Amino acid sequence: MAKFSTFYEGWLSSQEDFLRRLESLLIPVNGFDRDRECREIIPRVIEHYREFYREKAAAVEEDVFVSISPPWMSSFERSLLWITGFRPSILFPIMEGALAEEELAAGQRRRIEEVKAESRRREREITQAMARVQETMAEQPVYGLIKKFGGGEGAAAEKMRAAVEEVKAAMREVVREADELQGWTVAEVVEVLGPVQGVRFLAAVGRFQLRARRWGVERDG
Questions:
Q1: Based on the structure, what is the number of domains in the chain?
Q2: Domain interval for residue 161
Q3: What does the buried/exposed string (b/e) look like for 94-113 if buried means 16 or more CB atoms within 10 Å of the residue's CB?
Q4: Which of 88, 141, 147, 199 could form a cystine bridge with 38, CB 3.0-4.6 A?
């Protein structure tokens, strides 16, 4: 996890660089082809998020239990978490705050509503799946085995370790689905929006994330 913590600090630094670039594209400049510049930067920002999820997947594989309460985040950031990241549904109020309703064409609004409904449906399913995994931890035989043989050896202790590994495997799958949904939701929203709209949305997402980080770190300090 120390490796991912180091990666995350560097990733956030790059996120700040991307945010500055995104915000600069929203400043009107005569003779500047803003649409072209916006179209070019959006895939780079999306790839930046994909890099985060690739590295995070490796950290989850290493220790999925730690990823549920990630030490690389401030206590405030952790208080906002759903599974191991922000809820995908939070992206829609961020988008609405970044874009005036009249900026969206009727077709865009319809598609956004479809994406929102699908994202929230899948979010509920994943939340329920995590609840089932957590319930498994509190039920026999896992809880009883951990309580009785948590530090022991022998056949019973081996059975306990096998039961815990089964729970970890189920939790990794839930985390994978949650991260996949987060990435899917961002990509679908960006696909609906025009280039400048997409940059406004991604800039708003970046500001939210970095402000939560900054406030959390200051509060912990």
A1: 1
A2: 2-220
A3: bbeebbeeeebeeeeeebbe
A4: 199
